[in-house]
Amino acid sequence: MRQPVLSRRGFAAGAALAALLPAAARAAPPAASRAEQWRAAMERGFALNDGTGLYREYASAEASDAKYATEWPFSQAHIAYLDLVMADAAGAKRHGAALAKVRAAEQLFWSDTSTTGRGGYLSRVVPPLGSGDDLYYDDNEWVGLAQVQHYRFARDPASLAHAKAVFELIRSGWSEDPSLPSPGGVRWTQKADNGDRNTVSNMPAAQLGLRLQQITGERAYLDDALRYYGWTNAVLQRPDGLYHDHLKTDGTIEKTVWTYNQGVPIAVNALLSQVTGEKRYLDEAKRIAAASRQRFTVAQLDRQPPPFNAIYFKNLLLLDSIAGTREHRPAMQAYADHMWRNRRDPATGLCRPRKGRVELIDTAAMVQIEAVLGWAPEQWAALY
């Protein structure tokens, strides 16, 4: 299958994007002012303004830091602008040009080849701006899902081509090594010394496959999604429905229960119920969601990284849109309120970590959360 050609050019934005919003969204009030304040702080604290559209990774840069943020934090800033633009017509008008800039900058991480022969987004910008470095499948899956979200919003062929290219990379990352414990699964990274297979490298792959099946109608996407889903359930799901983090090459399981590793399987099950028409998948989505609500109080959520929580909550809203419920927004709002009161630095407006340095990804996550809290419930189906 021929690899789609990925352009580094910008994308249509601003008024053109606003015109694509449904009438109900165009009539909605502007996105919450807190989203705008987090966004403005992100720009002040991390934007380099060197013409690339890229950001630094840490506020108060140190001499040993790379000039540009790595792919995972950058992708979350990209998604922050996507969520802002999709909030309402005012957001599309105000932030369309910025979204076009970060979408173009995303392609500065793209390499036409990797260790499996497929192109993908590397963990650092490629030459001449950077070294390129390793490739992580989960990094690519977040970008692939952002491309799908943008395609379903703007209907631009380039976004769909990007998403399909990412899925071809994921297909190449399926482990065929019979010497590994529990053979199968998509590896976390292409690093030669790492054979970990993670919930986060498999369930977002399933989610991307389901979205591509919905767009294209091609059965192969569903088949692959079921393969990633089945392996993860067999190896990493706990009896209560929640998920461990990853299987190591020595056969031991890293059992940390991260929020994003619960949110994505919830959405995968909800999407499977749509695609297959089988109620059992929706029942499973609700079971995992209920178990996660029992586990994650606001205080416990504050001990999880903000980007993990952004992914978790947005996928809960996607479940609500498919199940016809509205039960998860209050918890998302409570977390946002807590972070505004307790983690926002009043001097800089940036998200303060519990420990360590101030990072781009945390503030970008808060932009996403506040932006999506400004969406009308009818729009939640567009998430991921």
From TrEMBL:
Molecular functions per Gene Ontology: hydrolase activity
Any single biological process term in GO: carbohydrate metabolic process
Organism of this sequence: Sphingomonas desiccabilis
Keyword field: Hydrolase
Protein name: Glycosyl hydrolase
Gene3D superfamilies per record: 1.50.10.20
UniProt keyword Hydrolase present: yes
InterPro entries associated with the record: 6-hairpin_glycosidase_sf (IPR008928), Glyco_hydro_76 (IPR005198), MUG_Protein (IPR053169), TAT_signal (IPR006311)
Taxonomic superkingdom: Bacteria
Taxonomic placement: Bacteria, Pseudomonadati, Pseudomonadota, Alphaproteobacteria, Sphingomonadales
